[in-house]
Design goal:
Strand 4 and strand 5 form a beta hairpin. It is globular and about 45 Å long. It has an eight-stranded antiparallel beta barrel. It is mainly beta and 153 residues long. It has a single domain, classed as Calycin beta-barrel core domain (Lipocalin, Beta Barrel), CATH 2.40.128.20.
Length: 153
């Protein structure tokens, strides 16, 4: 299995983000829940985003298809009535212990470009979050998002 799938397989907690839906306070406790699978020799992820709204767990379902030219990049496609929605995203940074990763996602018709710091742990030390943000400053795509990140955990 590709090294990138080690961080993605299972539940990932969103530690820090600039994604507006997670920042307005009405949707809380977001997690990404990925299942690595394949069909006809192609690997993809079953993608389930869970969050709490008005005390109830809500879910957004979709699939993430691996970019054949970049083994850290995916195209998300919604499931059901969201099947028309697509977005590109990529793991831009990842630690070797699979403790955390930084995901960049593209602008869509419905959402702005942004980033998430995710982790297999539900919480990261503030010093580690600051270290990750410092590493983000070295990446031309990520550095423009550092100032707008809000820690959720």
């Amino acid at each position: 299995m590709n090294f990138i799938f080690n961080i993605l397989s299972g539940t990932c907690f969103i530690i820090s983000t600039n994604f507006p839906i997670w920042l307005d306070g009405s949707e809380t406790n977001p997690t990404f829940n990925y299942t690595v699978t394949g069909k006809k020799g192609k690997t993809f992820l079953i993608d389930e985003v869970k969050y709490t709204k008005n005390g109830k767990t809500k879910t957004i379902n979709g699939f993430d298809y691996l970019n054949p030219n970049n083994d850290k990049a995916f195209t998300w496609q919604g499931k059901g009535f969201l099947a028309i929605a697509k977005s590109r995203w990529e793991i831009k940074l990842q630690d070797e212990k699979n403790e955390w990763a930084v995901i960049w996602f593209s602008k869509t018709l419905f959402t702005p470009e942004g980033v998430d710091i995710i982790s297999k742990k539900s919480k990261l030390d503030k010093s580690l979050i600051e270290e990750i943000k410092t590493k983000m400053l070295a990446d031309r795509v990520l550095k423009k998002h550092v100032g707008s990140l809000v820690d959720l955990k």
